[in-house]
Amino acid sequence: MKLKYPLEVNPGTTITNKTGGWRTQKPIVDHEICIGCDVCRKVCPEGVCFPTGEKNSKGRIFYDRDLDFCKGCGLCAKECPVSAIRMENDFK
Amino acid sequence: MQKYKNPNQHLIAPGHTACPGCGQLMSARLVLDACGSKTIIANATGCLEVTTTKYPTSSWKVPWVHSLFENPSAVASGILAALKQKGLDKEITVLAQGGDGSTFDIGFGLISGMWERKENILYVCYNTEVYSNTGYQASGATPLDANTTTTPPDKKSMGNAFIRKNMGEIAIAHGCVYVAQTTCGYPADIINKVKKALTFTGPKYLEILTTCIPGWGVENEMAVQMGKLAHKTGIYPVFEYYDDEYHVMKIPGEPLKVDEYLKLHKRFKHLFGNERGKEAIKQIQNIADKNIEKYNLK
User: Fold this and answer.
1) What is the mean pLDDT of residues A48-72?
2) pTM above the 0.80 mark?
3) Per the CB < 8 Å rule, is B58 touching A42?
4) Is residue B247 within 8 Å of residue B238, measured between CB atoms?
5) In chain B, which end has fewer C-beta atoms inside a 10 angstrom radius, N or C?
6) Distance (Å) from the C-alpha of residue B196 to the closest C-alpha of chain A?
7) CATH architecture of the domain with residue range A33-89
8) H runs (alpha helix) in B131-206
9) pLDDT computed for residue B113 by the predictor
10) Helices B72-86 and B108-116: crossing angle, nearest 10°?
11) CA-wise closest residue to B232 among B192, B187, B274, B183
């Protein structure tokens, strides 16, 4: 059966919806403190924490976040075992 | 301009409209990443559906089907039958998922049918303990004395009058080959349990307690903490069941009192500061103690 208006959409197309505008606070990552433990990547509900592939002075691959989509929930800052992430007020 | 570019490797794309700090989307992403890209999903109605598939966009990077509220298990059976016809059922995972509304109440009969037919499908329930999508009404998974829109506390009531269904035990009674419960407080455990489940052939059930930020009335950054506390107080046992044996995650140290967990919720606020509330907390403590004894969590 073919529908007149098929409810089919392309995969991963929500990336056109930049949810960064929801944010009141933004996470600041201190790359020197980061130990690359992967916790922020696991807990981020948006999935926008990622390893950068570059190493800091301690030889650890540090992580960063994508502010286009970050909603500023603060989960990464709360769960970071070494408190490398802090939340700061965001301004437009 | 940002210095580092997001490689965007997850199978759920960002840009969905879930609340900031949503425990469900976090768990869904971990489950799907653990399943891998060779997966077909049948999804129930609920928060997970409406937040990720705002027409004409979709967050999912794998084939994803939504039919009616109660249908994910039946649709998944159909998908599996089609895969068997094509001889692809060995290499492609079929995943059915829904919230607690579709699992505990509305889709219950069809899930029971899927388990009865012993279909090789992994059913994942994201248990938020309320109907989050429609405005926090009580469901079959709502715990005792919780304040929801349909069970407000009053002179004669303390909120929800019923103890939640134990869906894990119901799944075990159906003869599922793998049954597991976990919480969004343990991301690594979610990944391990999904990977373990996929090594079994037959009906599999995984239930994840996921924090609903507005439904529970907790702060944005508390999803993981609440998941951990639910386990450490004994309110929500974390276990897996296979080969006729329970394998539980023990509580580290002494189990915490349930107050530690309840006081952080807005939905249990009415239990504090009065005599009737103290009685109610005692009852909840009883439930937690029974869990600890039954599953040998200590």
Assistant:
1) 89
2) yes
3) no
4) no
5) N
6) 18
7) 2-Layer Sandwich (3.30)
8) 167-173, 187-197
9) 93
10) 30
11) B183
| pLDDT for residue A5 is more than 80 | no
Question: How far is A64 from B49, CA to CA, in rounded Å?
Answer: 28
Rounded to the nearest integer, the mean pLDDT of chain B is: 91
Closest alpha carbon within chain B to A76? B221
Residues of B in contact with A17 (CB under 8 A): 15-17, 54, 57
pLDDT band at A1 (very low <50, low <70, confident <90, very high): low
Give the DSSP H or E segment for A49.
strand A49-55
Ranges of each domain in chain A: 33-89
Task: Name the 3-class secondary structure at B43.
Answer: strand
Q: What is the pLDDT of residue B41?
A: 93
Tell me the helix, strand and coil percentages in chain A, rounded to 5.
20, 25, 55
Whether the pLDDT of residue B186 is over 90: the answer is: yes
What's the rounded Cα separation, in Å, for the pair B163 and B160? 8
Residues 3-62 of A with CB under 8 A from B: 7, 9-19, 22-23, 39, 42-48, 50, 52, 54
Contact A12 B58 (CB under 8 A): yes
Q: Is residue B105 classed exposed, middle or buried when 0-12, 13-18 and 19+ CB atoms within 10 A define those classes?
A: middle
How many other CB atoms sit within 10 Å of the CB of residue B142?
28
In the predicted structure, residue A25 carries a pLDDT above the cut 80: yes
Label residue B145 left, alpha or beta by phi (over 0 means left) and psi (-120 to 50 means alpha): left
CATH of segment(s) B23-295: 3.40.50.970
CA distance B66 to B51: 13
ipTM: 0.90
